[in-house]
Design goal:
Elements lengths: L2 H4 L20 H5 L4 H21 L1 H4 L8 E2 L2 E2 L21 H37 L1 H16 L2 H13 L5 H31 L3 H8 L4 H13 L3 H21 L12 H7 L1 H4 L5 H28 L1 H12 L3 E4 L2 E4 L5 H11 L1
Antiparallel strand pairs: 1-2, 3-4
Helix pairs in contact: 3-5, 3-14, 5-6, 5-8, 5-11, 5-14, 6-8, 7-8, 8-10, 8-11, 9-10, 11-12, 11-14, 12-14
Length: 353
């Protein structure tokens, strides 16, 4: 299930259990998975962890700089095949492909974090205000967000990137322009999710009680409503992380990303590797493309696993399906259904007749 599909899911207000002793954060979600679902969650978390560690420790892992094409005064051989000196070979500009892949993880992580933080800080408050206040304010925001959401995402990102960058693609400016461009794509998604959830809970008794006691609008929104309308946000954030990688790669591939001398970017490297394919030079394009695939796969697996655990609709469907089978799964432990004595069953049938 993708992030846009989550927008159409019905909102169910969960029943909050009594607070008890808190355990390790995230461990309860892990224990709620079982079988293939747990395997996919572990695989996704492993891929995401490798990506994050590579981005954080890029200066220690990468043997060369992202734009370095010489060492000790000696230029690297251009388009050299993978070897002991250059594990992933060298590019047409003489840069070490392995170093650019590692540094590209840092660029991707920066863009993902900035774009998701900006999207949450803009989309969530607007969704809360629009759903709670309603009237003309709600109609104007819904119309504007629907117009943005209907716009082609990549084209919208290109337009915003051109406007923000202003023809300059420095290291910081390139990252910010890409992040702002992706933010423009994500804000309508968070707005619609939070706004629809707010509309469904703003007339609940606990909200009416807070309103009667004289609580301010800000207190009602962020103290009473916020916690009950953001259950699906972790899933959307995870899925949008993978979408941000693809959007960033698309911008770089089309030439609207970051200059190679300012930062490493996987989409730009794929664009420059197009001419190498016809000459049998595969390593300049296969490794950046493989990095994109692995990161997107990891985030998607985590997002889908979290969606199956946190989504009340999917939990209900799974519980019904499991209860109708031969075994019942409780907290990841399969228990057999109680056996029925045929003799007692026949006796009960006679008594009933």
């Amino acid at each position: 299930m993708t992030a846009p599909e989550l927008l159409n899911e019905p909102v169910v207000t969960p029943v909050v259990p009594p607070s008890g002793r808190r355990g390790i954060p995230g461990l309860r979600l892990f224990t709620m998975t079982a079988g293939l679902q747990r395997a996919t969650l572990i695989l996704g978390l492993a891929l995401v962890a490798v990506f994050v560690l590579a981005a954080i420790f890029a200066p220690l892992i990468a043997p060369y700089g992202f734009a370095q094409s010489a060492s000790d005064g000696v230029d690297f051989v251009r388009q050299q095949a993978p070897s002991a000196d250059h594990w992933f070979g060298t590019s047409v500009r003489g840069e070490d492909v392995f170093s650019r892949v590692i540094w590209g993880a840092r660029t991707a992580l920066f863009v993902i974090v900035i774009s998701l933080v900006l999207s949450l800080f803009i989309g969530v408050p607007l969704g809360l205000l629009s759903g709670y206040l309603g009237r003309w304010f709600d109609r104007v925001l819904v119309l504007f967000m629907d117009a943005m959401y209907a716009f082609p995402t990549l084209l919208l990102a290109i337009v915003v990137s051109i406007v923000v960058a202003g023809g300059r693609s420095t290291s910081l400016g390139g990252v910010l322009s890409a992040a702002v461009a992706i933010t423009a794509v994500f804000v309508p998604q968070y707005f619609r999710v939070v706004r629809n959830a707010t509309v469904s809970v703003k007339n609940e008794p606990y909200v009416d009680a807070a309103r009667v006691t004289g609580a301010s609008t800000a207190r009602i929104l962020f103290r009473h409503i916020f916690a009950n309308v953001t259950q699906s946000l972790p899933v959307i954030v995870t899925l949008n992380g993978s979408e941000a990688i693809l959007t960033l790669a698309g911008l770089g591939f089309l030439g609207f990303g970051i200059e190679p001398t300012q930062a490493a970017e996987w989409g730009y490297d794929l664009n420059k590797a197009l001419s190498d394919v016809s000459n049998g030079i595969w390593w300049t394009g296969i490794f950046p493309g493989f990095a994109i695939v692995l990161v997107v796969l990891g985030m998607t697996l985590v997002g889908e696993s979290l969606n199956e655990v946190l989504n009340p609709v999917l939990r209900t469907r799974r519980a019904v399906a499991v209860a109708s089978g031969d075994t019942i799964t409780v907290a990841g432990v399969e228990t057999a259904e109680p056996e029925v004595d045929p003799a007692k069953d026949r006796t009960a049938g006679k008594e009933t007749s």
